[in-house]
Amino acid sequence: MNKILLIHQKEIQHYRVNIYNYLSKYLKKRGFELSVISEGIQKGNTYKPEFTNIFTKLKFSLLIQKIINVKPKAVILFVNLNNLYLFPIIFCIKLLKIKVVYWGHGIDLQDKQSLLKLLLYRLEHYLSDGIILYAEHLKNNIIHSLHYKCFIANNTLNFTEISIEPFEKDLVLSKYGITTKKIIILTGRIQKRKRIEDLIQAFKKLNDCTIGLICVGPCDDELYGMINNELENVFFLGPIYGSEAIRILMSSDVYCIPGSIGLSIVDAQFCGLPIVTENVDHGPEIMYFKEGVNGYMVPKGDINALANRLSQLLYNDDLRKRFSVAAKEGIEINGHIDRLCEGFYNCLNFVLLK
User: Fold this and answer.
1) Which of 35, 37, 172, 213 has its CA 20 to 30 A from that of 231?
2) What is the pLDDT of residues 38-67, one digit of tens each?
């Protein structure tokens, strides 16, 4: 059994626990034993870790000791540049003749103009024996001469163990005091870069008391205060995870994040929700979006266009159902957790056979 160590910076997010559970089982069937080292697991996690879990303070001396104890054949680095231990760890791993694998976006998608960061990423890519990327189009962030060691692990979520019993949508929503006939929903961390103000302005333009707007996820206090006092039929439910979050999504009609779509698109499409967004810099998960097939993209800051597309999907049941089917079918194929695992497996095979 080939031991593999994945260094996950900071705490493991609740949804990644379930991903690592599946990845660990997938790799074990193929001759790899996965251990994950981190500073802990996010509070509120509902998943029981089924992978080898190593908790420690993530600093150079402790990490090196853990690596020496585990004796892995390869170390996968899920670590940002701002962690000062990154390059010392890479050089030490290389000296120990252990393979190094980079996992990420290829660059800092929130700071693409930084020449220093770009050079550091180039160095990390050069030193790595393998590169795992969130999506195919991110290969554009890697110099062409290194494409031979790039592997794609579509960033997604693990839905294989989710079983939702039949339920009545009205009962799910009424628990939160929501009685509107149609629902626009947004989930995830509610931040300014999500352009929530645009969604609120578009919602105002709909001017229909039978439509509600649900926001699920942690929210900055200032943003919460500004939006929550704005309109009736806007519901902030706070952080909700697991099957309850899925039921709320399945009880909704349209998913809308005007800015910076990330993993939440996977949840939304799994639940059959059409997507409405703006033409901005999105996360790699925008690969799941198909214009005019499972959603609409409008020009950045065009509130009228955003409201019109929301209205079109809310009032045209046949169109919304067609988009819903396309969303489900697309995520079942391209967003299945096996697509992520295949990328890891192919990369590990490559680096260990070098």
Assistant:
1) 172
2) 999 988 777 889 999 999 999 999 999 999
